[in-house]
Please model this.
Amino acid sequence: AKVEEKLFQNRYLVDAGRPHIKVKPHTTPSASLMSMVTLCPAGCYSQTEGGQVEVAADGCLECGTCRIVTRKTGEVEWNYPRGGFGVLYKFG
Ligand code: SF4
Model:
């Protein structure tokens, strides 16, 4: 199956009020953080009108890309979701 079809099979359970990924407050994002707007496979990252980068962790696939990409800048706080929350893989 295509990756889109596989993604469609996954369900996502939102842990309300406890996002597992946070972008630290900043005025200007680093190039690494900025690249997440296009790199995140789930499209969780976006740019605000003010030029900051924000994340909406709903739908996050827990691929870890943003954690690795921003490892050096430390702009992203990344924790695994609590047990039972987050992406629930039906296959795989
Ligand atoms: Fe996107 Fe992956 Fe980071 Fe989740 S872990 S926000 S899917 S890059």
Remarks:
- Strands lie at 11-13, 21-23, 45-47, 53-55, 76-78, 86-88.
- The pocket of iron/sulfur cluster is lined by residues 21, 40-42, 44, 60-66 (CB under 6 Å).
